[in-house]
Design brief:
The complex is a heterodimer of chains A (about 110) and B (about 110).
Chain A (H helix, E strand, L loop, with lengths): L4 E3 L2 E4 L5 E6 L6 E7 L5 E8 L2 E5 L7 E4 L6 E5 L8 E8 L8 E2 L3 E5 L1
Parallel strand pairs in A: 2-11
Antiparallel strand pairs in A: 1-3, 3-8, 4-5, 4-9, 5-6, 7-8, 9-10, 9-11
Chain B lengths: L3 E4 L2 E5 L4 E7 L6 E7 L6 E7 L4 E4 L2 E6 L4 E6 L8 E7 L7 E2 L3 E6 L1
Parallel strand pairs in B: 2-11
Antiparallel strand pairs in B: 1-3, 3-8, 4-5, 4-9, 6-7, 7-8, 9-10, 9-11
């Protein structure tokens, strides 16, 4: 069964450093998403991406965050200058279309900012 | 924006009993309501979803009901088994892109 894959599974970084989280969505999916989950809390929407553009973003997704689809398969989330409060599990997801179909989640990248 | 409230936050049932988790949402534009199950340290996985033109949907031991007038939807698990133990999240999509999740219900099924 096709699945969303994310790398790395765990990333430790120093405060102020840039990190790039990588995702390979399911190949025939057109809509891509990033979510985050702070330990013990709910999953929070960050951004959605379609046709090489951001289609929606949340208040969390400020100027420190950016997304990119650098080639035909990868989808990345960059955090320019990490803060302690960025420590969370980051999930990539993809779907065939938005709004009323299943979003498939990757296994997540646990980001720890020290 | 959409606000999804989920209750209870924890639920403990005996194996074989039923479990019910309830969610309310605020944005009447929401038209898609998925339920995700997340086992410890794993990814959220869809277990059932319902669209706004349907009032109830069932898949084996799992059912979801939707009341659009009251803006609430519920997950029902019958004949619970220990492997049902997990955190369950409801969600709603007002915009068509973002999934707005509830805070989750930690379900424990004891043998």
């Amino acid at each position: 069964e096709p699945e969303v894959t994310q790398t790395p599974s765990h990333q430790v970084t120093q405060m102020g450093q840039e990190v790039i989280l990588r995702c390979v969505p399911i190949s025939n999916h057109l809509y891509f998403y990033w979510y985050r989950q702070i330990l013990g809390q709910k999953v929070e929407f960050l951004v959605s991406f379609y046709n090489n553009e951001i289609s929606e973003k949340s208040e969390i997704f400020d100027d420190q965050f950016s997304v990119e689809r650098p080639d035909g398969s990868n989808f990345t989330l960059k955090i320019r200058s990490t803060k302690l409060e960025d420590s969370a599990m980051y999930f990539c997801a993809s779907s065939v279309r938005p709004g009323d179909t299943e979003a498939f989640f990757g296994q997540g990248t646990r980001l720890t900012v020290v | 924006g959409e606000n999804v409230e989920q209750h209870p936050s924890t639920l403990s049932v005996q194996e074989g009993d039923s479990a019910v988790i309830k969610c309310t949402y605020s944005d009447s534009a929401s038209n898609y309501f998925p339920w995700y199950k997340q086992e410890l340290g794993k990814r959220p996985q869809l277990i059932i979803d319902i669209r706004s033109n349907v009032g109830e949907k069932k898949d084996q031991r799992i059912a979801v009901t939707l009341n659009k007038t009251a803006k609430h939807f519920s997950l029902h698990i019958t004949e619970t088994q220990p492997e049902d133990s997990a955190v369950y999240f409801c969600a709603a999509t007002p915009s068509g892109y973002a999934l707005n999740f509830g805070k989750g219900t930690s379900l424990l099924v004891t043998p």
